[in-house]
């Protein structure tokens, strides 16, 4: 009997992947790259924000960042033995554990720098005359019994203090240690005995048994109470004359010697100091950190401490102020970074959609055949989903792994969420687009031009919805600034989306009008290219959307970065007045300007004399009458002012009225600040210089700023009209390119302040938040530009088969290769011009619309106060034109290359009978 034949059907996914390995590899690379960038972005943001938070906390002193919990001495109504027991080390250690248990995350105490103990709230005057007394007032000593002295210091000499027997309030003598700085300043040696007054008992004797050197003198253990490490010279307030001063030092007792403080007038108090562990603090937990601090200061945490330790316990810290300052800096930077993130994310999403559209077009005949033979939408979509997931899921995992390795810091959950979102979008694009395109079996040969496909009602509603969202976002940003919801960050993207949809609808109309007169010209190339460009497929929407969004984001981002640089440069220029400034509090040597002129990079030097405390008018020298008098050489200084753009004027306006130039003959013409001009007008008035001489001036020109001084009222006069001493230069303003700072300082010599404009500009970048945000912004804009180029390539690849077939058929009618190249270039040129011009105009409009709500001061100058005021967003021509011109050149070049490559290939394949292209 013949055997039964079994038909083995090859699996769908394996068959399809083997049939098109190149497409599968391209999709793998695209998904892996996009998932890597999407996953790396939130971790990179977390990294620079956490670094900025640690910088802020590191710059703040321990007295500001440490949470201090304290409680007074036990009440006198309690038995004396119970009061003494509450001050001993074991009781304080148990209370310390209860305080730690009260602290809520993310606030975590650093056990290495946290401390607890007992201290005298009112340091008492020592009874020993051998301690230093600068003005005859006895030194005061603070008794402190803090835990962990042996762990946080090393012995310089002697031994650590210890307790012999049981210390009580009546103990006559205890042992103590002092730090090396305290011993040196207060002349304390090992074996010295310091006597402190007692209450209802004799004086307390404190014997110094050791001198210790702190292991980490800048740590919170020593700096939360600075007096522990080094003594302070306290100056008493006075109504006039010399003020009285006294020294304040600390004596470090062993923890179990604290009960002896009950017998002194120092009012001992218990304390627990919690130094925060900055290594576990994260910027994204700022709201929780603020809540934890508030709960410990005035909330339920303090209530638990009072129930567990002492009803009179209290807590205080300035950590909330430090966190608030960081949050304010962060709130000014986050919206700007969000704009770049949303812009780049939109372009990347569009590219993924275009990749799915390209796959649908490539397999149009296959999918139409499946539908014609009874394939259901669900079945076909499911097979496409499985096929895409087989490629996209491993690619997404690969991209996520690469991002985690490249950026090891930051939240893993955000990175995983971003990579999963990219993978899901990549998986869903092909089946969804295929389902939408094949809901009904398509008719072969049907046109899909914009001119023949009437926009549906759904599309109209979607476009109107986007228009409303964009308008709302722009209005919100103009009204409340950059601190708003995420819709505000989407405003530039939405403006680009609306522009793309509007341009796609409108641009075929002028092309069709131009095609008619072009038909009367000799040759068919121009007419044919315009006619084909006017009948562009509806798939043009996505490439144009990607290009306009990328160009808008690039223009916005480039203008932000250019504005940041301009704000820092202008602020540095106001500080120095030129490319470099050499200044002293005394007159400079007459040979110094020539020495500076010979320094590498120096182009010109302008010496000036500045009297900062000159007194104008007939007043008595009050602050309102203080002006800075600047003596200059009119011609050279006027050229400098015009060159740097700070209050330029003509040098002839300061010409001395007298022929001899001697002071006192006639009022000197002066350039004045607006405040001085409003006060004195154009009448002559007298100015008393710092050396006691007088000069009479008359204001002829008013300028808001001048290179020599900033943020001061000023008068600029000709140096020739001043006396010999006031006319001697005290500053030299230097201009040049790439000035050598080291050589300039060497030429200036000692005792002279040298400031370079470039160094002042770099000083404004003092936070990782600023530098990190700039790097992220630059990377996001670059990634958006790369995806825009990829979108352009995908659009041309999608149209390549149809264009190749067109050229092959036209060659059979006599079209030359040169005409073919010109045809493709002219066909691509209208769309490239549309994208370039539309991107530039959209970027310009977006910047003009959003600039009132964008303040670049925070990202530009951080915590430094800017002499130039707020830094506003302004249009940067290079950021508008360069990306647009690059898109135009790239599109034209790709079209020419495609025509060249097509011309070299044979036309047999394109001319096959039955080819549907």
Explain what you see.
The protein has 917 residues and is α+β, with helices and mostly antiparallel strands. 51% of the residues lie in helices and 14% in strands. Strands 1, 2, 3, 4, 9, 10, 11 and 12 form an 8-stranded mixed sheet that branches. α8 (286-297) packs antiparallel against α10 and α19 packs antiparallel against α26. The chain is flat, with a radius of gyration of 39 Å.
Determine Rg (CA atoms, Å).
39 Å
Question: What fraction of residues sit in β-strands?
Answer: 5-15%
Largest sheet: 8 strands, mixed
- Number of helix segments? 29
- Portion of residues within helices: 40-55%
Number of strands: 21
**Average residue pLDDT:** 81
Structural class: alpha+beta
Low-confidence stretches: 5-10, 620-624, 658-664
Terminus-to-terminus distance: 52 Å
Shape: flat
Give the arrangement of secondary structure elements.
Layout: H1 12-19, H2 21-59, H3 62-65, E1 67-72, H4 80-86, H5 89-102, E2 115-120, E3 124-125, E4 140-146, E5 153-158, E6 173-179, H6 180-186, E7 193-196, E8 204-214, H7 220-223, E9 232-235, E10 245-252, E11 268-274, H8 286-297, H9 300-308, E12 314-316, H10 319-362, H11 364-372, H12 377-406, H13 412-437, H14 457-480, H15 486-489, H16 491-506, H17 508-518, H18 525-534, H19 541-576, E13 580-583, H20 592-597, E14 602-616, E15 626-632, H21 634-644, E16 668-672, H22 674-680, E17 685-688, E18 694-702, E19 714-718, H23 724-727, E20 731-736, H24 741-748, E21 753-756, H25 757-763, H26 768-811, H27 817-850, H28 857-861, H29 877-904
Parallel strand pairs: 4-10, 6-8, 15-19, 16-18
Antiparallel strand pairs: 1-11, 1-12, 2-4, 2-11, 3-4, 5-8, 7-8, 9-10, 13-20, 13-21, 14-15, 14-17, 14-20, 16-19, 17-18
Helix pairs in contact: 1-12, 2-10, 2-12, 2-13, 2-26, 5-9, 8-9, 8-10, 10-13, 10-19, 10-26, 12-13, 14-16, 16-19, 16-27, 17-18, 18-27, 19-25, 19-26, 19-27, 19-29, 26-29, 27-29
């Amino acid at each position: 009997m013949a055997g039964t034949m079994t038909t083995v059907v090859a699996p769908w996914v394996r068959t399809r992947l083997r049939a098109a390995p190149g497409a599968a590899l391209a999709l793998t690379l695209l998904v892996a790259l996009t998932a890597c960038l999407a996953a790396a972005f939130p971790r990179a943001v977390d990294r620079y924000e956490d670094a900025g938070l640690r910088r802020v906390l590191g710059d703040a002193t321990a007295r500001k960042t440490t949470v201090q919990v304290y409680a007074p001495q036990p009440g006198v109504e309690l038995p004396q033995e119970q009061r003494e027991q509450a001050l001993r080390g074991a009781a304080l250690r148990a209370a310390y554990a209860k305080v730690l248990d009260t602290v809520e995350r993310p606030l975590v105490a650093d056990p290495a720098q946290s401390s607890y103990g007992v201290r005298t709230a009112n340091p008492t005057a020592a009874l020993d005359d051998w301690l230093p007394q600068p003005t005859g007032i006895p030194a005061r000593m603070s008794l402190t019994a803090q835990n962990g002295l042996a762990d946080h210091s090393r012995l310089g000499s002697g031994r650590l203090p210890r307790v012999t027997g049981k210390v009580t309030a009546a103990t006559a003598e205890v042992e103590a240690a002092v730090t090396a700085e305290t011993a040196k300043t207060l002349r304390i040696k090992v074996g010295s005995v310091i006597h402190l007054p007692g209450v209802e008992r004799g004086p307390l004797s404190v014997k110094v048994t050791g001198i210790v050197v702190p292991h980490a003198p800048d740590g919170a253990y020593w700096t939360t109470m600075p007096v522990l490490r080094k003594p302070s010279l306290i100056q008493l307030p006075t109504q006039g004359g010399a003020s009285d001063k006294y020294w304040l030092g600390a004596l470090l007792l062993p923890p179990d010697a604290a009960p002896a403080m009950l017998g002194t007038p120092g009012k001992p108090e218990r304390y627990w100091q919690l130094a925060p562990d900055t290594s576990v603090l994260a910027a994204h937990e700022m709201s929780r950190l603020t809540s934890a601090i508030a709960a410990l200061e005035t909330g339920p945490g303090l209530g638990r401490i009072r129930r567990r330790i002492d009803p009179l316990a209290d807590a205080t810290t300035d950590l909330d102020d430090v966190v608030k300052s960081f949050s304010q800096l962060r709130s000014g930077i986050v919206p700007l970074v969000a704009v770049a993130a949303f812009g780049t994310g939109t372009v990347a999403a569009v590219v993924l959609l275009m990749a799915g559209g390209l796959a649908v077009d490539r397999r149009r005949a296959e999918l139409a055949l499946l539908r014609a033979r009874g394939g259901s939408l669900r079945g076909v979509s499911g097979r496409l989903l499985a096929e895409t997931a087989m490629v996209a899921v491993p690619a997404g995992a690969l991209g996520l792994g690469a991002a985690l390795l490249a950026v090891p810091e930051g939240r893993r959950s955000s990175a995983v969420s971003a990579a999963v979102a990219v993978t899901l979008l990549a998986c869903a694009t092909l089946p969804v687009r295929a389902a939408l395109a094949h809901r009904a079996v398509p008719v072969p040969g049907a046109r899909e031009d914009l001119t023949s496909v009437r926009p549906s009602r759904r599309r109209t509603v979607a476009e109107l919805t986007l228009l409303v969202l964009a308008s709302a976002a722009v209005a919100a940003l103009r009204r409340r600034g950059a601190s708003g919801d995420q819709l505000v960050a989407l405003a530039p993207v939405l403006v680009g989306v609306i522009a793309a949809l509007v341009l796609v609808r409108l641009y075929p109309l002028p092309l069709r009008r131009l095609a008619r007169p072009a038909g009367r010209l000799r040759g068919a190339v121009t007419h044919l290219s315009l006619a084909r460009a006017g009948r562009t497929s509806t798939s043009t929407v996505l490439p144009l959307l990607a290009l306009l969004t990328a160009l808008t984001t690039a223009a916005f981002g480039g203008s932000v970065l250019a504005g940041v640089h301009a704000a820092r440069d202008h602020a540095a220029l106001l500080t120095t007045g030129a490319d470099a400034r050499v200044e002293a509090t005394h007159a400079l040597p007459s040979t110094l300007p020539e020495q500076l002129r010979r320094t590498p990079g120096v182009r010109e030097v302008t010496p000036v004399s500045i009297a900062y405390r000159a007194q104008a008018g007939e007043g008595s020298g009050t602050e309102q009458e203080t002006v800075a008098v600047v003596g200059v050489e009119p011609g050279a200084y006027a050229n400098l002012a015009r060159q740097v753009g700070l209050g330029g004027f003509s040098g002839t306006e300061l010409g001395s009225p007298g022929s001899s130039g001697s002071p006192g003959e006639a009022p000197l013409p002066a350039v004045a600040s607006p405040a001085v001009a409003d006060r004195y007008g154009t009448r002559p008035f007298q100015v008393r210089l710092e050396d006691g001489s007088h000069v009479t001036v008359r204001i002829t020109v008013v300028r808001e700023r001048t290179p020599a001084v900033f943020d001061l009222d000023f008068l600029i006069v000709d140096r020739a009209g001043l006396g010999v001493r006031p006319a001697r230069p005290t500053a030299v303003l230097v201009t040049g390119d790439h000035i050598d700072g080291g050589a300039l300082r060497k030429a200036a010599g000692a005792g002279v302040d040298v400031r370079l404009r470039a160094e002042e500009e770099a000083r404004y970048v003092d936070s990782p938040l600023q530098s990190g945000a700039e790097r992220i912004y630059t990377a996001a804009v670059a990634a958006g530009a790369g995806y825009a180029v990829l979108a352009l390539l995908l659009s041309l690849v999608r149209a390549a088969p149809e264009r190749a077939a067109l050229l092959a058929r036209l060659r059979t009618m006599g079209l030359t290769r040169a005409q073919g190249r010109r045809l493709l270039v002219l066909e691509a040129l209208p769309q490239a011009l549309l994208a370039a011009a539309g991107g530039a105009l959209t970027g310009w409009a977006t910047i003009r619309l959003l600039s009132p709500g964008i303040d670049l001061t925070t990202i530009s100058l951080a915590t430094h106060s800017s002499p130039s005021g707020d830094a506003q967003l302004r249009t940067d021509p290079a950021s508008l034109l360069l990306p647009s011109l690059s898109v135009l050149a790239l599109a034209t070049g790709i079209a020419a290359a495609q025509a060249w490559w097509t011309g070299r290939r044979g036309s047999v394949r394109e001319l096959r009978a039955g080819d549907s292209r």
